[in-house]
Amino acid sequence: MSSPLRNDRFLRALRREPVDHTPVWLMRQAGRYLPEYLAVRREAGSFLAMAKNPEIACEVTLQPLRRFELDAAILFSDILTIPDAMGLGLYFVEGEGPKFERPVRSVGDVDRLAVPDMAAELGYVTDAVSLIRRELDGAVPLIGFSGSPWTLACYMVEGGGSKNFSHVKSLALNEPAAMHRLLDVITDSVIAYLSAQRAAGAQALQVFDTWGGVLSPTMYREFSLRYLQRIAAELERGDGDARTPLILFGKGNGAYVEELAATGTEGVGVDWTIDLDEAARRARGRVALQGNLDPATLYGNPDAIRREVGRVLDAYRDGNGGSREGHVFNLGHGMSPDMNPDHVKVLVDAVHELSAR
Ligand code: CP3
User: Fold this and answer.
1) What does the mean pLDDT of the chain come to?
2) How many domains would you assign to the chain?
3) Nearest CA to 267 among 125, 129, 143, 126?
4) Residue 142 pLDDT
5) In contact, 183 and 242? CB cutoff 8 Å
6) Domain annotation covers residue 222
7) Does the CB atom of residue 81 touch ligand 1 within 6 A?
């Protein structure tokens, strides 16, 4: 099944080994900013129909790699597949984002949840992983992913996106034991899900803690970090060069880089609100760092994009004792549908050009 990997920059950077150029991939690199994605979506009918069909998921995973010299592919799927498999009934309303038909609102709702059967409920995801590995044929590594327990709990309890997280924060404040039972069953599911993706061929795994940053530091440590620690400790990842690296990404996690680096993860992904030199000093060489260009930089012109790419590359080097080792270039969060694909090419090429040895 596995051809030798022709571009291992991304995996080498996660091991903090020297690379010829800093590797780059972009969160949400597949999606609505690409006309070829919109064409496939028109055929398929909806995002969920795309994500649940392994051939289509494979096709849209590969689309950005045909345009740009990206150093990794990321599985086309969504973090909300786990709650969907738990029976919450995921659907999307145009312009409003994800929603659940049956949100988790009471202690009784929490106690009815169970870890989904991976093969029966999420086989479409692992089928997509195997197919993408076969189609990539060793061109670049494939990243599998999951939402973090806290971030999944936010969607499950709110029933969709939220501005103030009133329901999930109330549950955490009023029923902390039930909140911890909820986070435990999600964590067990995340570990099983990431393990299944790894078994199907994922060569790195990323956890998206999109909403950890909405918590106070005390609540972050209790309701988000604790479960990220459990994932990093319990997820089977193998040894040596065969080890499947883990990246913990979080929006608003700049204050917790030391604590995240101490979990045993291989990589920490940060957003754009912390200077990467400061993040690198806090990481003290214990982990690789991923990030952290402001996604809105893509609205700038090519000169501005090159300038900002150079600034991020140099900030990492300055905070990392003068070396570029251990940096995976990325945005600080995902791309938006109104971004210009030509600007993405400028960004990707600038990373390789400006970081060349
Ligand atoms: O990075 C990639 O290219 C891989 C694919 C990917 C998607 N979602 C595809 C997608 C990944 C890694 C995700 C993760 C995800 N999904 C997160 C965590 C990362 C982050 O952005 O913070 C979250 C919070 C979600 C939940 C979710 N799914 C939202 C908020 C939306 C957008 C809804 C909207 O209408 O804007 C989705 C849908 C979604 N997931 C799309 C894509 C390409 C848009 C689908 C479409 O309308 O075509």
Assistant:
1) 97
2) 1
3) 143
4) 98
5) no
6) yes
7) no
Which ligand 1 atom is the nearest neighbour of the CA of 145?
12
d(CA 347, CA 354): 10
Residue given tokens 């030798």 in the structure block: 4
The predicted pLDDT at position 1 comes to 52
Catalytic: which of 15, 28, 281, 307? 28
318 CA → ligand 1 middle, Å: 33
63 has a pLDDT exceeding 60: yes
What tokens does 104 get?
A: 């988790």
Residue 2 reports pLDDT greater than 70: no
Residue 60: its pLDDT value, please? 98
- Establish if 193 belongs to a structural domain: yes
Q: Is 2 inside any structural domain?
A: no
Determine whether 32 is an active site residue.
yes
256: phi then psi, degrees, rounded to nearest 5: -115, 15
- Is the pTM higher than 0.80? The answer reads yes
User: Is 28 an active-site residue?
Assistant: yes
- Cβ of residue 29 lying under 6 Å from some atom of ligand 1: yes
Domain span at 197:
8-355
Looking up residue 171, the CATH number of its domain turns out to be 3.20.20.210
Which atom, in ligand 1's list, is nearest to the CA of 206?
Answer: 12
**Residue 183 domain-assigned?**
yes
Residue 95's pLDDT is: 85
